[in-house]
Amino acid sequence: MTTELRVLDPLEWDRWYGVLELAFGGVAEAPEERELYRDLTEFDRFIGAWDGGLCVGTAGAFTFRLTVPGGASVPAAGVTMVSVAGTHRRRGILTSMMRRQLDDVRSWGEPLALLTASEPEIYGRFGYGAATYAAHATIDRSRVRLTVPEGTDGVALRVTSLEEGLKAAEAVYAKLVPGRPGMLARRPGWERQALLDPPGDRAGASPRMCVLAERDGEVVGYAHYAIKPDWSFAGPDGSVSVHQLAGLDAVAEAALWRFLCSVDLTVKVKIHSRPVDDAWQHLVSEVRRCEPTLREGLFVRLVEVGAALEARTYQAPVDVVFEVADAFCPWNEGRWRLTGDAKGATCVRTSDAADLALSVRELGAAYLGGTSLASLAAAGRVRELRDGALLEASVAFGSPVAPWLPHGF
Ligand SMILES: CC(=O)SCCNC(=O)CCNC(=O)[C@H](O)C(C)(C)COP(=O)(O)OP(=O)(O)OC[C@H]1O[C@@H](n2cnc3c(N)ncnc32)[C@H](O)[C@@H]1OP(=O)(O)O
């Protein structure tokens, strides 16, 4: 049996998407979700695997721009909607789609590929490294106190529907994108993702709402949240789920947390997918009682090592030679000299002796400054070949702001 890979024809989208839905368990998505992802499909960048007339594999690559350390916005392919039919699994179809896709991304001149994974285990073999992490937590209001900075009383709060608050929320989001590595500039249509709230996914909670934070008539923050009422014999036992929260300054952000932590008849605040350095940790009296948990967020793959390492800046001067292993994209293999600082960088091929040896996956993990090369070295995944090179590169690659992407794709 041979399968053929070809670019997705709009007329075949329903069949193609049906394969994806089935691979994810066969539960039909809400019509608005399906419609959104159809509208977002970039047909010339999406492929299907076909066994005769049967679609047996799906994969796509959105056109994104990623914020990297230093604040530049770099073209990146957002790998998405990857699936293989259960009848055809473990015959190499995923591998063939990843091969085709990375060749395509290279030919489009995009130095990076990104994804958010259903299972992280799948993608390391193709050179993707976990570059951002997201924290989840639950604030138990009966045990944890919130202390907010002065000035929160000067922030006015207004509850709206998601739709009504969308334009103002998006304006806040857009202002924050350049300030945090890992964030993606919103392309037209993507704002609709924030409106998805199918009743079937609410598990007894209210429809999502928006609260806008305003100062002097200007919107300076917003949160998307839902309330789940509950009662125990002893009284109210409801919870608030925080799905998005962003403030243009510390006081605006704290005013939103204070509001969400004081909703009547609720006792818990469930925090979803926040940056690992998020401010709430410094507002609560004890982090440990909030039971923080971590999960991988964005995976990064350097498609062109030289161009990718030149596209970001470095928070301290660096001059190191990397010996890069990349069996899946052999054009990256070999030695690269990276010279850079906070103003810019060059990364060129060299025959000089290597200072650090690693695979492209580790470069992806470290790329946004959230995973240190030193911590990867501690796990045996980076080898130091010149004394001092690990410290030099680890400091330079770091970011004062933890990289984060608030949503999947
Ligand atoms: C970015 C995103 O869209 S994430 C969504 C990914 N999709 C899903 O999770 C949907 C459900 N799963 C699937 O559709 C399929 O099982 C896929 C796409 C994960 C794998 O497709 P396949 O065609 O079976 O993969 P393929 O045969 O190319 O496997 C390549 C290698 O990866 C390994 N592999 C594949 N899937 C997994 C997995 N879930 N966990 C661990 N290893 C895996 C295989 O064992 C194989 O290893 P080998 O080369 O050492 O033998």
UniProtKB/TrEMBL annotation:
Quaternary state and interactors: Homohexamer; trimer of dimers.
Cited Pfam families: Acetyltransf_17, Acetyltransf_9, SCP2_2
Annotated keywords: Acyltransferase, Transferase
Presence of keyword Transcription: no
Lineage: Bacteria, Bacillati, Actinomycetota, Actinomycetes, Kitasatosporales
Protein name, as recorded: Putative acetyltransferase
Domain N-acetyltransferase as annotated: residue spans: 3-149
Family to which the UniProt record says this protein belongs: Belongs to the acetyltransferase Eis family.
One example of a Gene Ontology biological process annotation: aminoglycoside antibiotic catabolic process
